[in-house]
Design goal:
The complex is a heterodimer of chains A (96) and B (577).
Chain A lengths: L5 E7 L4 H17 L4 E7 L6 H4 L7 E6 L4 E4 L5 H8 L1 H6 L1
Parallel strand pairs in A: 1-2
Antiparallel strand pairs in A: 1-3, 3-4
Chain B lengths: L1 H11 L5 E2 L6 H4 L4 E2 L3 E6 L5 H16 L3 E5 L4 H9 L5 H6 L3 E5 L7 E3 L6 H14 L3 E5 L3 H5 L3 H18 L2 E7 L11 H4 L2 E10 L2 E11 L8 E7 L2 E4 L15 E2 L4 H4 L7 E2 L3 E6 L5 H14 L4 E5 L4 H9 L6 H6 L2 E5 L7 H15 L3 E5 L10 H17 L3 E7 L20 E10 L2 E11 L9 E6 L2 E4 L4 E2 L2 E2 L2 H81 L8
The chains are: A alpha+beta (96), B alpha/beta (577).
Chain lengths: 96, 577
C-alpha cells in the first residue's frame, strides 16, 4: 500500500487568491506527508471547462483524491491542515 | 448576442419580450410566455410536476421554437430523466444526439465532500456556462437548485452564490426555469429564489374531498401583466395542460342553419323549427322527467343527419342506455355499430374535474363529432365544488361553441328548488337554448311538462306543453288550459268529459231558448190575429152603421123631394096619399 502513488487533482478557476492559497497549502502538506508518493495535477476550469462535469465539480477550489480509492473531495482553500489530512486520510496511512 | 436580441425586441415592442413555453394554456396566462432572457422560478410541493414543466419548456423550445436548451439536474440522473419523460413522447436521447439539448447531472453528496476554508461555486458557473456555450442554448432549467443546500454547509455563501447565479444567468441572456421545493409559509424553502426571480410560478397539489386537483398560479411577473387566478392544470399523456379561462374570447363564428331537436313537436315550438347549428342547449329537469330521452332523441336526429355524434354518459353504461332508449323507440344501436355514434360512459368520480374536461377535449379532438351530448352535467358536482364545476363547464361550453359543435347538456335540478328554475352550476347564462322539463303533479298523478325558457336569437312558444314518452319516441300533446292552469293526464280526460257535458248542456239550453221563443212568437201571432179579427168586426160594424145612415139619409131626402113635388102638384088635402 505504501508503494501506491497518490493521485491528487486540484481544480481551480484562474489565478484567484483562494486557488493560489489552496495550491500552496496542498503542496506543503504533500511535501510533509507524501513526499515522492504523490502526483498533483492542477486543472484550470477556465481553460478546460469540459472537465468540470467528470468529477462533479461545483465549488472552487476543489481537491480530488483520485487514487487511492475511494474518491474524496475537499473544497475550500485547504487552510485547516488537520481537516485536510483527515479528509485525505493521510494520517491513517502514516500510522499503518 | 442574446442581449442584443433582447434589447432590439424591447425597443420595437412596448411590452416585455417573452419566450413562449409551448405549454398548453400557460402562454395564455402569462400573455406570451416567460420573461425572455430572465430567470423564472417554478415552485411547488412534491408531485406537482415541476421537473416536468421544466423539461417540457425545454423540449417545446427545441421542437417548436428552435431554441436549444440545457437541463442541469441536481436530483435525477440523465437516464432517469429520459426514462421519466419518454412516456410523454419526449426523446431526450435523440435531442442530445442532435446537440439541441444538454443534460448535466450535478451530483451533490455531503458525505463525499469535506470543507476547509473558503470556496465559491465558480465550478457550477463554469459547467453551466460550458454547457450553454457548446450548444448555443437559449433556455436553461435548473432542477432543483436548493439541493445545493444539502451539499454545502456554508449557507451564507450559498445564498450569495445563488444570487450571483441569477444575475449571471440574466447576463447570459438565457431564459431560465429554476425549480424549488415549497417551504413552510414561504414559496421556497430558502426564501431566497422568489425574490431574485423575475417571474414566479406556483404549482399546487391539493386534495379536496379525496380528489386531487393541481393548480397553477403566477405569483409574480416583473414588468408584465398576467392572469392572477389559480388555474387548474393536469399532467396528461401529452405533457402539462393548463386550463385558463382567459382563452375565452367569445369570437366564434355562428351558423344560420337549423338543426332538429329530434322531437318534431318540440321543433314546432321554435319559430324557425329547430335549434341553431353549433349552439348549446341545456335541458334541465327534476328526476325522471325524461331528460336522457330528450338527449337521446337529439342524438338520434344528429345520427340520422349523418353527423358524428358523441354521447358522454355519466349515469348509465352504454348498453343500458341503448336498451332503455330502444324501449322508447329510439334505435341508437345501428349508429353505434356503424361508428357514427360513440357513447363514452364513466363515473364522474373516476377523475377529477379537470381530467374529465381534458378527456372530453381529447375525445372530441380525436372523434371530431358534430354533436356532443353530456348527460348529465349536474353529476359532476359530486367531484368538485360548485365554483370549480362552473368554471369547468364554462370552458367546456366555450370549447364546444368555438368548435361549432351542437351541444346538449342535461342537468338535474332538485325538486324543491324546481321553481327557482336556476341551475346550480349557473351555466344557464352560457347556453343558447334552455329547455325545462318538469313534473306537473295533479290529481293523484304526475305528468311531464316541457317549456322553453330561452332561445337566443329565435322566437319560441311560451307555452308549457305536456309531453308523453311513447314507444315511438316523444310526443307533445296539445295545450289544454283549464280554469286552474294547464291540464294534463287524467285531468285532461276529465276535463274533456266535463267539457263535452258542458257543451251538451249549452246545446240543450240553446234549444230550450229557441222553443221558448217560438212559443212566444206563436202567442204573439195569435194575439195579433185576434186583434185583427176584432178590428175587422169593429170595422164591419162601423161600415154597416155608416151605410144604414146613408140609406136613411138618402131615403129621407127622397121623401123630402117627393114631398116638395107633391106640394106643388097636388092639393094640400091629400097629403097622406
Amino acid at each position: 500500500m505504501d508503494e501506491e502513488m497518490w493521485e491528487l487533482r486540484l481544480y481551480v478557476a484562474g489565478q484567484t487568491v483562494k486557488s493560489m492559497q489552496a495550491l500552496a497549502n496542498l503542496k506543503t502538506y504533500c511535501e510533509q506527508h507524501l513526499k515522492g508518493r504523490y502526483r498533483l495535477e492542477i486543472v484550470d476550469l477556465l481553460q478546460h471547462p469540459q472537465l468540470a462535469e467528470g468529477d462533479q465539480i461545483l465549488a472552487i477550489p476543489t481537491l480530488v483524491r483520485k487514487v487511492p480509492a475511494p474518491i474524496r473531495k475537499i473544497i475550500g482553500d485547504l487552510s485547516n491542515q488537520e481537516r485536510v489530512l483527515v479528509g485525505l486520510d493521510i494520517r491513517a496511512l502514516d500510522h499503518s | 448576442m442574446p442581449n442584443q436580441q433582447y434589447s432590439r425586441a424591447a425597443a420595437s415592442l412596448p411590452q416585455l419580450p417573452k419566450a413562449p413555453t409551448g405549454i398548453e394554456g400557460l402562454d395564455e396566462i402569462t400573455e406570451g410566455g416567460l420573461p425572455l432572457g430572465r430567470p423564472t422560478l417554478v415552485c411547488g410541493s412534491a408531485g406537482c410536476g415541476k421537473t416536468l414543466l421544466g423539461i417540457e419548456f425545454l423540449v417545446r423550445g427545441i421542437l417548436d421554437y428552435d431554441e436549444p436548451g440545457v437541463l442541469m439536474a441536481f436530483e435525477e440522473t440523465a437516464p432517469e430523466l429520459a426514462a421519466n419523460v419518454a412516456s410523454l413522447g419526449f426523446d431526450l436521447a435523440q435531442l442530445q444526439a442532435d446537440k439541441k439539448l444538454r443534460l448535466d447531472h450535478v451530483h451533490v453528496d455531503r458525505s463525499e465532500i469535506d470543507e476547509t476554508g473558503e470556496y465559491d461555486l465558480e465550478g457550477l458557473f463554469i459547467r453551466l456556462g460550458y454547457a450553454i456555450d457548446t450548444i448555443g442554448a437559449k433556455r436553461v432549467v435548473l432542477d432543483t437548485i436548493e439541493s445545493l443546500f444539502s451539499g454545502f454547509s456554508n449557507e451564507a455563501l450559498l445564498r450569495s452564490e445563488i444570487r450571483r447565479l441569477f444575475r449571471w444567468l440574466k447576463d447570459k441572456g438565457v431564459t431560465t426555469i429554476i425549480t424549488a421545493e415549497r417551504g413552510e409559509g414561504t414559496l421556497t424553502r430558502q426564501g431566497l429564489e422568489e425574490y431574485v426571480s423575475d417571474c414566479v410560478v406556483l404549482l399546487d397539489n391539493r386534495i379536496i374531498d379525496q380528489i386531487t386537483t393541481r393548480r397553477l398560479r403566477i405569483v409574480k411577473y416583473r414588468g408584465s401583466t398576467h392572469g392572477t387566478n389559480e388555474y387548474p392544470y393536469i399532467i396528461t399523456e401529452d405533457g402539462i395542460s393548463v386550463l385558463p379561462v382567459t382563452s375565452l374570447r367569445l369570437e366564434h363564428a355562428v351558423s344560420d342553419n337549423i338543426v332538429s331537436t329530434g322531437v318534431a313537436d318540440l321543433d314546432t315550438m321554435f319559430r324557425r323549427g329547430g335549434l341553431y347549428q353549433g349552439s348549446s342547449t341545456l335541458v334541465t329537469g327534476t328526476a325522471g322527467t325524461a331528460k336522457t330521452t330528450l338527449a337521446a332523441a337529439f342524438a338520434l336526429a344528429a345520427c340520422q343527419r349523418g353527423e358524428p355524434t358523441m354521447f358522454f354518459a355519466f349515469e348509465e353504461s352504454p348498453a343500458q342506455l341503448l336498451r332503455n332508449m330502444a324501449s322508447v323507440g329510439l334505435a341508437l344501436q345501428p349508429f353505434v355499430d356503424s361508428g357514427l355514434l360513440r357513447i363514452e360512459a364513466s363515473r364522474p368520480t373516476l377523475n377529477g374535474l379537470e381530467r374529465h374536461l381534458v378527456t372530453i377535449h381529447k375525445l372530441i379532438g380525436q372523434f371530431k363529432p358534430q354533436t356532443v351530448l353530456i348527460d348529465p352535467i349536474s353529476n359532476l358536482v359530486s367531484v368538485g365544488s360548485l365554483s370549480e364545476v362552473r368554471s369547468m363547464l364554462t370552458r367546456l361550453v366555450d370549447f364546444l361553441k368555438v368548435q361549432g359543435i351542437n351541444a346538449l347538456f342535461t342537468a338535474l335540478i332538485s325538486g324543491s328548488q324546481g321553481q327557482r328554475e336556476m341551475t346550480e352550476e349557473g351555466i344557464s347564462s352560457l347556453v343558447d337554448t334552455w329547455i325545462h322539463v318538469r313534473d306537473l303533479e295533479g290529481v293523484g298523478e304526475r305528468n311531464r311538462g316541457i317549456s322553453i325558457l330561452k332561445a337566443r336569437g329565435m322566437a319560441h312558444s311560451n307555452q308549457v306543453r305536456e309531453f308523453i314518452v311513447t314507444e315511438h319516441g316523444i310526443r307533445l300533446l296539445d295545450v289544454l288550459v283549464g280554469p286552474a292552469g294547464i291540464i294534463t293526464g287524467a285531468s285532461r280526460l276529465t276535463q274533456h268529459i266535463q267539457e263535452q257535458a258542458r257543451a251538451l248542456a249549452t246545446e240543450q239550453e240553446a234549444e230550450r231558448r229557441d222553443r221558448e221563443l217560438e212559443r212566444k212568437r206563436r202567442v204573439l201571432e195569435a194575439t195579433i190575429a185576434n186583434l185583427r179579427t176584432e178590428f175587422e168586426s169593429v170595422e164591419e160594424e162601423l161600415r154597416l152603421v155608416n151605410s144604414e145612415e146613408q140609406q136613411r139619409h138618402e131615403s129621407l131626402s127622397d121623401e123630402r123631394r117627393q114631398l116638395g113635388r107633391s106640394f106643388s102638384t097636388r092639393p094640400p088635402g091629400d097629403a097622406n096619399a
